[in-house]
Amino acid sequence: MSGRKLAKIAYRLLQLTFVGLVIAHVLLDLGYPWWWNFLPIVLSYVILVVAHRWGGAPDSPRAAREPVEVEPPVTGRWSALNSPADRTPSHGTHAYGQTYAIDVVAEPEPGARPAFRWLWPLARRAGAFPAYGAPLFAAAEGTVVRAVDSQRDHLSRTSLLALLYLMIVEASVRDLAGVKRVVGNHVVLDLGDGTHALHAHLRRGSLTVREGDRVTAGQLIAQCGNSGNTTEPHLHFQLMDGPDPDSARGIPFTWRGLGVPHNRETFEAPTTTAQPT
């Protein structure tokens, strides 16, 4: 187990210790100053900082690589969100190896995707979004090293109250629960040469591959879902230098024939010979 992984485990344990101490302090008379409860949370961040400097920043020059060209993992008309073409880290953090990650949502036609609402409806079923159930494909030839599809697909978080709940409560709980609760159902492919591809937020029960399988570029591997830390059904895609997002660093990518779409850019992903028509 790498030092970066051990640091993340220690961080989560200390964060949970903080929560436990706060609850105990409220319910019981423990006889010590209230600010002592914050010692575990301070120590947890100290550990992350030390691990960050010891292990090297995820985007440090020694970890930098040329973009790896792979096939688009979707087909049809989609739009990009949180794109590395606009900024890095694309999701505002290097955590989980997502320095160069991208989110894509299905846009089969203008207006087909439900828009964000300030008040109502608070949430929508996953099936209301055109991305839900859309076929997803292996971005390159490789070996399946991780395959998880047991987590449920939850409601959307596309209203103001639901989004605040996600950001303030749900995201924190998922982070403490571990990387699997963040990326949801997912497939990780070992592409060789120290490169791994993550396809995340997949539909429960939709995986067509399992760990150890060898796949070809464009092979159907799952359906798009709404599992993990998501606001709506979409595909989160990234390349990284290891199979575990908890300890991996991001690797830049480019999609063959498309490059890297910018935020809110609508693109048409072609169908490859390996994909069903």
Number of helices: 4
| Poorly predicted segments | 57-62
CATH topology call of the largest domain: Glucose Permease (Domain IIA)
CATH superfamily of the largest domain: Glucose Permease (Domain IIA)
Q: Structural class per helix/strand content? A: alpha+beta
Beta strands, count: 13
| Whole-number tally of structural domains | 2
CATH-defined architecture of the largest domain? Distorted Sandwich
Helix content: 10-25%
Biggest sheet record:
9 strands, antiparallel
| Percentage of residues in DSSP E strands | 15-25%
Inertia-based shape: globular
CATH class of the largest domain: Mainly Beta
The CA-CA distance between the termini, in Å, is 43 Å
Sequence of secondary-structure elements: HHEEEEEHHEEEEEEEE
Radius of gyration: 20 Å
Average pLDDT reading: 84
GO molecular function: metalloendopeptidase activity
Organism: Streptomyces spongiae
Pfam families: Peptidase_M23 (PF01551)
InterPro entries: Cell_wall_metabolism_enzyme, Dup_hybrid_motif, M23ase_b-sheet_dom
Characteristics:
2 domains; 277 residues; Glucose Permease (Domain IIA); 13 strands; alpha+beta
